[in-house]
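Service request form, structural biology core

Requester: graduate student, group of Dr. S.
Request type: structure prediction, single chain
Budget code: on file
Notes: please return the result as structure tokens.

Sequence provided:
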Amino acid sequence: MSVIYRNPLAVVIVLLSLAVMAPCKGDDPLPPGLTEAIRNPLIPVIVDATVLRYDKQGYGEIKINTVFSSGPSKKQGETPAVELPRVIRGYSIDGKTKIAPLKVVLSGNTGRFLLFLDGDLLFSTYNHHFPIREMKPGKVEVGVGFNGGGAPWKPLWEMLCLIRNYPDHQKTEKDFRSAIQKFYVTTGRFPTTQEGLVALFHCPPAMKKETWGGPFVSGERSLWADSFFYKREPSGKYSLDSKIRILKGK
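Core staff response, request fulfilled:
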């Protein structure tokens, strides 16, 4: 039995309703921009990765620097196990078989990117590869421009704060305070204001590496150095305030 809609407006409303309810396929573009992408809870994996080179098929050999999100876990509070590929492709052109080579997606560029992965594929058709640059130790930025175009640039930590439950700023602050104390025990002083938290993972120019004794924080933690206000007080002690807390209004 066929149903005839006499009101054209009713047909439009029905079609729009079906479009909203339809599940997003692998080749359906998501809203452009890093903010929208990073807040999407359906993205399986978010990583900081360096694209080293391309093979004959245009697939990219990558080195994973940091895993920021492993996707939603079945059990609350648990991080799901994820196997990260060494070689990734682009995205599914038709949602099934045809794969755009990563070399084409990234315009042949190598370097460091914030990538959104689904297995060995980029999560969507475009806009889920964002360039990362390190301006100087402790100052890491990510390009938030549409389609990986770079500028404007924002602090990487500020964007990662948009990931649900990441980072735990209290634990991050506790880890830095512990590292500052280790620096003090080893060197006999706290880092100067000018040296900042960078002194915890890069030997200060005024010190010899043997005297320094670091690094005192991991490479992953060093990404968050720019997310704190650090100051050595005239008394010789220090103050440490989290920008993450301020950003989230906590």
